[in-house]
Structure formats: C-alpha cells, structure tokens
Amino acid sequence: MKAVWYEALGAADKVLQYGDVEQSQPGDGEVRVRVEASGVNPVDTKRRLGGRGEMPFRRVIPHLDGAGVIDAVGNGVAADRLDQRVWLYEAQGDQPFGTAAEYVTVPDNRAVPLADSTSFEQGASLGVPAMTAHGAVFGDGEVRGQTLLVTGGAGAVGRYAIQFAKLSGAQVVATVSNEPKAELAKSAGADHVLNYRTEDVAACVQEITAGQGVDRIVEVEFGGNLDTSLKCLKIGGVIATYASQAMPEPTIPFYTMLYQHVVVRHVLVLHLPNEAKQQAIADINRWLEQDALSHHLGLKFPLAEAVAAHQAVENGAVGKVILDI
Predict the structure, then answer these.
(1) How much of the chain, in percent, has pLDDT values that exceed 90?
(2) 130-270 CATH, one of 3.40.50.2300, 1.10.10.10, 3.90.180.10, 3.40.50.300
(3) Which stretches of the chain are assigned E, i.e. beta strand?
(4) Of 59, 122, 246, 321, which is most buried with the most CB atoms under 10 A?
C-alpha cells in the first residue's frame, strides 16, 4: 500500500518519505480501515520535529486523525462493522502507524461510526480538535447558564469549543486576531467576538459579564494569556488549557491564583480518561446526526504531497489541512 513515513526526526522535506509499505492486518479486537482522508494536526508536525519526545518506533506513519471505511475486522469484532463509514482518533497514538496511508489498523473503539451526512474530509477534522474541545469545555461539568471565554476562537479546537458550549446552553465570548477570523468565530455561534490586538479583552469581558467575570476559559495560550485570563475569570473559575506555545514554561502568580481559587485543567486528548473520551464521542456523534456542527476545512493535498501539507500546518494554515487518500 502507499504510505508516508519517517525514520528520523527532522524537517518535513528532510525526513518524510512516500512509497510502498506492507499492508497491515487487523489483530484481535482491531479493524482495518481503508483511509479516504487523513487530517494533519499541529501535534503531528511537532512529533515529527521531536518536540514531543524521541522516535517512539523505528518507522512512523504519522497522523492521529482520519476517516474511511472498515474493510477487514479481527477476532472479537462484529462482522457487521465491515463496510462501515468511520472517523478515527488516536490512530497513531501508541502504535507506529497512523492515517497517512491507504490503510490503517486500529483498535475497534477508535473507529467511530460516521454519520452519512458527514463527509470523510469533515470526519478527518474531528479527532484531536473536537475531542480536545469537548474535554476543555466539559472537563468541569455542564456549562448551561455559564459564560465561557474561548481564546483562539477561529482555530480548530476553539471553533468546536464555541459550538459545543453554545449547543449546551452557554454564553460564549471568543478572541481572535483579525476580521476574517472574527467571521469564523461568529459563524460558529460566538455571542461576542473580541480582537485581542485592538481591544482590551479583560475590560470587554468585565463589561459583557457585568463585572462578574467568566466561569471558564478554553485556553490556547496559557502562559502568554495568563495575566489577561486572571482579569477575566470569576472567583473559583476554571482555565482549561491545551497549549502554551509562545510561553511554554510560564511563571505562575501563585497567590493571585490562590486568592481567586482558580482551577487550572490541562487537557491532553491522548490522556483523557476513557469515560471522558466515550462521552465526547457520544456527544459529537449525536450532534453530527443532528447536522448541528460546522467544520472548517482548509487546504487539501494528495498523499504524495504530505511534505507540503506538513509545511502548511507549520506555517499556520487556517482550517483543517487534509490529505486526500
């Protein structure tokens, strides 16, 4: 089968290879999926660059997310799963092969039935972004009647977070860096959209909430935004953060946070408790069946042009970058 892989860490154009590899066979409790679309996440590029540890295997076929059709099942898997449309999560989470290939073998539970109304490209957009957003929004309980601040509201995680919070009865304030991104956040349902480059986010949030502050923050840049976040958050509020790229080792104002009784929740989808993952899958699939979600697709490349796809993600491409398998 055709696949993309790397055998050393480094720049995409130096280490990514394209060619033929042996087609995998499903083991006990596994399914094999004929991949139609593979989603490229920032974490996929960071893993390849070495920012998430050393090479875990001699050869890695990258990408956690994807979508396709089950074409073979292993022992212990119901035969009626054959020919089922599915979306994939954590395909390359703890094994050497992910979705950057014509076929991928995964544990049965990581191949989730995909609604007929959802395209394979949209299905490949879920995985890391949607499940991260669910963990950040609901990690501390239901949000009905609450106000959430979603930073980076035009991003993959942020845009799903806005939708999940709105579908669950919350008010949402989102931050963005420009007008096109403001339109993306508004199209996801944000009640208020703030440009953090031109507006005083903390002052605007306090005005929106009548001085009460927000209940939760879904945070894309923990360190860089911490001072502002603490000015936006009510006593006992939650910062649910999944990234801190600009300031990876932030200094924590301990007593300020102590006296605000702030909860900081780290959200890493690979390590979400299984119960949380299953709840995320159930909610996401319910909303897909209801056609309640919108997806922001970005650039699309053929499998053989995976280098260009990775470079696009590294250069900040807006919208989910897809490999068309």
Answers:
(1) 97
(2) 3.90.180.10
(3) 2-5, 17-20, 30-40, 65-73, 85-88, 103-107, 111-113, 147-151, 171-176, 192-195, 214-219, 233-241, 263-266, 297-302, 320-324
(4) 321
The per-residue pLDDT for 56 is: 85
Q: CATH for 2-125+295-324? A: 3.90.180.10
Rounded to two decimals, what is the model's pTM?
0.96
Q: How far apart are CA 186 and CA 188, in angstroms?
A: 5
Question: Any residues with CB less than 8 A from the CB of 249 and at least 6 apart, and which?
Answer: 223
Residue 254 burial (CB < 10 Å; 0-12/13-18/19+)? exposed
SS (H, E, C) 255-306: HHHHHCCCEEEECCHHHCCHHHHHHHHHHHHHHHHCCCCCCCEEEEEEHHHH
Domain boundaries, given as residue ranges, for the chain? 2-125+295-324, 130-270
pLDDT at 52 over 80: no
Radius of gyration of the chain (CA): 20
